[in-house]
Amino acid sequence: MDTHAGLEGQIDRWRGYVLRHQAISAADVDELEDHLREQIADRRATGLDDEEAFLVAIKRLGNLDQISREFAREHSERLWKQLVLVPADTGGSTPAWRELVVVLCLALGAGATVKAGIAGIGTDSALVRNLGLLVMPFATAYFAWKRHLARPVLATIVVSFAALAAVLNLYPFTASGSTEVLAALHAPVVLWLLLGLAYVGGRWRSDRRRMDFVRFTGELVIYLALLALGGAVLVGLTLGTLSLIGVDFEPVLEDWILPFAVPGALVVAAWLVEAKQQVVENIAPVLTKVFTPLTVVMLLVLLSVLVGAGDLNSIDRDLLILMDAILVLVLGLVLYSVSARDPLTPPGLFDALQVALVTLALAVDAVMLTAMLTRLAEFGASPNRLAALGLNVLLLVHLVRAAWLAVGFLRGRRAFAALERWQTRYLPVYALWAAVVVLAFPPLFGFS
């Protein structure tokens, strides 16, 4: 449906109001929003303008309590039906213990698969190439079970996993060659897209669900870091205690605990994010406000170093790789900041800081692109150079458009929803580029 920025802003305010009522989940609000948009489209077809169509459509939906009760009756299996209609009845949702059993089984399955992979896969490079395939299907399976995926969506995910596995294991890679390393680095991006498809329940066209997945990704990183820190402390104390009494714990740690704990942590962290969303959403705005100014300072230093280097040919290749990693992290921080922001609040100082962050990242990316093109002209094409060049071109397009929309929001000319939509709609492009690197680069460069 063709809508104007003003109408999108009204829909965003309505959605924010509905989401603040804890009885309704984000998925349910998506359904309500679809119904609201249908009503608006019907009203506009009769000749009403955007504002009139919106007001009439909202009135037809009724007040929030009425909507909750109507949805509760139509979706009898939903947990929030018990909160709205019959609080004493708890038989309409999956018991917590059953979900915990599913999560633990999937976590153990991921660990067992990695353990079997370590024993059965011949070379270390082949193990690294397949590591994501050994772990990510179990986290994806959790959301496939949780979201009750439709068969076509489930079939798409399974076939994609199988196709990626075939490519990674049937291609005659040169051991430790450039194309093998690139395939190992880019395959997790494709797997991340498949995980996202399961997370959004197959509704990848929904801007809001894609933004939910962005938020989930950031929160997953937080939980994984917390689990890693807690696990490191626990393992350190155990090692120290056992060493004092003469027990060698390292073989058990290396052969059994780490192969099961590390992949299992991904599944457990995904479950924790899903179960504790409201808690982490309180942390997200704090984290973004702390790290955004620090990242701005870091980019200023890096930009001055790059500009001061003089001859771009003299920039070390490892430095360019490191800068790429930093830009990807900056992009992740920008996305997480957008996902954590209340779209109903007016632009302020933090939004100006976000514009500064994106602008600095854009300047760094421009310098890096110039250096890469210079090296490409001097030394010729290679898999690594073309892969890095492609990534930086994608980052350039992403950042230019994001900066343009963010400035428009600061000046009051665009709704924040336009920036959100651009950020989420561009994300699949990275996965598509990663798929090109995995599928096309090896045969293009002779699998070397």
TrEMBL record:
Keywords: Membrane, Transmembrane, Transmembrane helix. The chain crosses the membrane at residues 100-121, 127-145, 152-171, 183-200, 220-244, 256-274, 286-307, 319-338, 350-374, 386-407, 427-445. InterPro entries: Perm_prefix_1 (IPR047928). The keyword Membrane applies. This is Permease prefix domain 1-containing protein. It comes from Arthrobacter burdickii.
